[in-house]
Amino acid sequence: MREHLDQQLTRLNHDLIKMGAMVETIIDKAVNALKNQDLELAKNVYKEDDAIDEMELKIEKECLNLIALQQPMAKDLRRIASALKIITDLERIGDHAVNIAKITLEIGNEPLMKPLIDIPKMAEIAQNMIKLSLDAFVNQDIELAKRAAEMDEQVDNLYDTVINEVFQYIQRDSKFLNQGIKLLFVGRYLERVADHTTNICERIIYMVTGEKLK
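The structure assignment produced for this chain is given below.
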């Protein structure tokens, strides 16, 4: 029975990594669509989100079957319960990518107030956080989870920079008001992506140690 449980837990790891990769990709596509004003790519983000939702349901079913049929104890149970929490955060990250794509479609072909620099940087760091956090889950690596969570501060700092720049543009010319507000929302969505990833890291630490750490 232990061998069978280990096989199923390994499959769970693979599926979580796959879902994480899908989420990294959707963030990348959403921000690139905005940066390049690629409306077709923005529309494609919606399809990617549907696939992420399906993956969430698949993993949820795997977890519930493991609990019902294998009756895991202690650490294995924390691992499965953590996976259930993690896929919720990953699914919400996908939703934020859709929100960014929606803003891209709203802006359309209207010239951007400035070339986007800090928003793509935020996305890049957030994507790296997601990858590191899921590596930490698979390897049950507390230090890696902490390192990923600490990157949240970099995203927050960049978000502050985005806020300041947007307000400067709006103060210079009120024509930037509408687009500026939309870009602030994009920054906020990416900041929330980093927050969700920090939640994942906290859950991993609990999974390994049994202790909650903020």
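Interim note for the steering committee: The chain has a mean pLDDT of 94. Helices lie at 2-36, 39-70, 74-107, 118-139, 142-150, 152-172, 177-209.
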